[in-house]
Automatic annotation (TrEMBL):
Location in or out of the cell: Cytoplasm
Chief localization: cytoplasm
GO biological process: Mo-molybdopterin cofactor biosynthetic process
Cofactor(s) required, per the database record: Mg(2+)
Enzymatic class: transferase
A cellular component annotation (GO) from this entry: cytoplasm
Function: Transfers a GMP moiety from GTP to Mo-molybdopterin (Mo-MPT) cofactor (Moco or molybdenum cofactor) to form Mo-molybdopterin guanine dinucleotide (Mo-MGD) cofactor.
N-terminal signal peptide: none
MobA-like NTP transferase domain span: 4-168
Protein name as it appears in the record: Probable molybdenum cofactor guanylyltransferase
Binding-site list for Mg(2+): 104
Source taxonomy: Archaea, Methanobacteriati, Methanobacteriota, Stenosarchaea group, Halobacteria
């Protein structure tokens, strides 16, 4: 079994007052666009979000063809960054491996996701993390061994280490280079929409 975690608990500070997770992107909530692109590669979906987001996200996910569960953030008063959401979501997964995708990546490419799963599974590692040519690691679109990464995130947070790569220091993982990504899909899979201008630009492409 393979799982997917969509991380949606961020405060969307650059997006304005609205929750970008459920903002209508060409008529469909953005989180649903992300989730729809994962249907062919996973068996279940876990949504990490805050309790105050759940009702709106559940509405956006109505009639989704895979089982959906919600892993709610327990501490919404502190900004622990995406690491906390990743750990919380992975802890709720049934699959040995799970792809984590941020809710603001509506162009996620199923071919890239499939390749990340294959790299992690075939090499029997705890994570397969893309690295672009600019040196940026795409930790919010990567495949992790669910239990190992969840535990590593918890340990990193407990020791006060908020660096996004900190959990991986405890794990066996592989770097997936941009050249490999391009062989299996579109590098645009990592595009994320943080601002209204980026959102409006993306609308024209759907």
């Amino acid at each position: 079994m393979r799982s997917a975690v969509v991380v949606a608990g961020g405060r969307s500070t650059r997006f304005g007052d609205a929750d970008k997770a459920v903002a209508e992107l060409a008529g469909t909530p953005m989180i649903r666009r992300v989730a729809d692109r994962l249907v062919s590669t996973v068996d279940e979906l876990v949504v990490n979000c805050r309790a105050d987001q759940r009702a709106a996200i559940e509405s956006a996910m109505a009639d989704y063809p895979l089982p959906v569960r919600y892993a709610l953030d327990t501490d919404t008063d502190t900004d622990e960054g995406p690491m906390a959401g990743i750990g919380t979501g992975l802890d709720a997964c049934d699959g040995e491996y799970a792809v984590v995708v941020a809710c603001d990546m509506p162009f996620v490419d199923s071919g890239v996701v499939e390749y990340l799963f294959e790299r992690a599974e075939e090499e029997n590692v705890d994570a397969a993390v893309p690295k672009l040519d600019d040196g940026w690691y795409q930790t919010t679109q990567a495949v992790y061994r669910s239990d190992a990464m969840a535990a590593a995130c918890e340990a990193a947070l407990e020791r006060g280490d908020r660096k996004i790569l900190a959990p991986l220091e405890e794990l066996a993982w592989v770097v997936v280079e941009e050249s490999e990504i391009r062989e299996h899909g579109d590098v645009g899979t990592f595009e994320n929409l943080n601002t209204r201008d980026e959102f409006e630009d993306a609308q024209t492409r759907f």
